[in-house]
Amino acid sequence: MLLIAAMAALSNAAAQQDQSAEPDGQYYQLFAPLTFYHGVAQSQLSLSDEEADADVSQAVNDALMHVYLDRPDLVEVTQSEQEASGQLRQDIIEQPVVQSVEMVEVGPEPQPAEPEAEPVEVEVKKPKFWKYKGDGYLQFMQNYVSGNWYKGGESNYSAVGALTLEANYDNKSKWKWDNKLEMKLGFQTSRTDEIHKFKAHEDLIRYTGKVGLQAANKWYYTLQGLAYTQFARGFKANDIRTYSDFLSPLNISVGLGMDYKVEWFNKKLTGTINISPLAVNYRYVDRRYFRSKNDAEVEQFDWMPSRYGIDDQKHHLTDFGSQLTAALEWKISDNVTWKSRFYTFTSYHRAELEWENTFALRVSKYISANLFLFPRFDDSNRRDDDLGYWQFKEYSSLGFSYNF
Fold first, then answer.
1. Cβ–Cβ < 8 Å for 330, 338
2. How far apart are CA 212 and CA 227, in angstroms?
3. Which residues lie below 8 Å from residue 196, measured CB to CB, with a gap of 6+?
4. Contact 182, 204 (CB under 8 A)
5. Nearest Cα to 295, choosing from 237, 242, 248, 235?
6. What's the rounded Cα separation, in Å, for the pair 372 and 377?
């Protein structure tokens, strides 16, 4: 019945109320346990004509008064009793529920604290344009030399030591300068040789230098210089004559051309190939005669420079022509490496060709075995009855090796 009366009163008040108005807290009186409120009776007995008496609060009061008059038995408690027990909030009854908004000034956004700067050590490294490397070995061998080998020697069992040093400059832009020094010296003994207790069978001092200016990706304009001689005197078995010596001969060649950088088979075959259409070859022989240091009469021996294509009573020979040089290294497997050097020079009147091949088998970190094959052609020498202008040298060895 209370709800029916309230709905009727509210329907009349809603017609007069602004649709956007928000209801106040007195609505709860319709749904709370029925209580006798003092304000309901006061609103009915008031003589005021203010417009506020016709709002929703008045409608609620009218509904409650209707119930008080028609069904007073439904009223359980009075307002005074609820106030005494502290169960009734006056602010809800007398005041509408209004949201209180307090405006505050917006402060600046918090900034992350900057860490304290710590001193940092800066190390500036200069680019390394120079690269150094080398290798050496000391090995024992079985050696074969053809009878007409131009420096002498014979087949035998012997020992040899070698050292190779390289210092290469590359500014990573256009210029490069390669330097390579090879030194090799081996001695042998022979039971059949009644004159010489020791003979040098492997003897080499060779310098190769190249200055290059990059022309394309792997091509360089190159000026190449090559010089080589030997350490000691060269003999043949049971022969007192000296066939070669320090600066006898000395070969110097200079070539102008192009240099190609080889990187084939996934960089397993590397090296350089130099083509010099313009080249000059200079050969010098210091020793005059084929003689022994104990010989007093030298006239009975041949003029030594003639053995190397130099005219009688002269010590040097200069040729202009073309040359080709190739230095390659092929890593066949982790333990097998092939190093090859090919050199040829022609003055279009004479030709000289050398092809050195070294097959190295690495047994362990410091032990390796070598097989060396060296065919050579030189038509400035005297022609041999068996091999003509060809010469050949071979040896195999086993011993210590070290790379650095």
1. yes
2. 18
3. 190, 235, 237
4. yes
5. 242
6. 17
User: Count of residues for the chain?
Assistant: 404
Q: Which two tokens stand for residue 339?
A: 């190093």
Hey, what are 396's tokens? Answer: 């195999």
Residues paired with residue 144 on neighbouring β-strands, in sequence order? 394
Q: Is 282 helix (H, G, I), strand (E, B) or coil?
A: strand
Q: Which helix (H) or strand (E) holds 82?
A: helix 79-85
As to burial, measured by CB atoms within 10 angstroms (0-12 exposed, 13-18 middle, 19+ buried), residue 32 is: exposed
Whole-number pLDDT of residue 110: 75
Position 213, amino acid: L
Q: What is the CA radius of gyration of the chain?
A: 57
Q: Residue 228 and residue 251: Cα distance in Å, rounded?
A: 6
Q: How far is 226 from 207, CA to CA, in rounded Å?
A: 6
SS percent in the chain: helix, strand, coil, step 5: 15, 45, 40
Q: How far apart, in whole angstroms, are the C-alpha atoms of residue 195 and residue 100?
A: 127
* CA separation, residue 63 to residues 57, 66, 86, 89, 247 (Å): 10, 5, 25, 21, 138
pLDDT at 339: 95
As a whole number, mean pLDDT of residues 354-368 equals 93
CA 242/CA 285 separation, integer angstroms: 13
The answer to whether residues 183 and 205 touch, using CB atoms and an 8 Å cutoff, is yes
Q: What is this structure's pTM?
A: 0.65
**DSSP assignment string, 3-33:** HHHHHHHHHHHHTTS-TTPPP-GGGHHHHSS
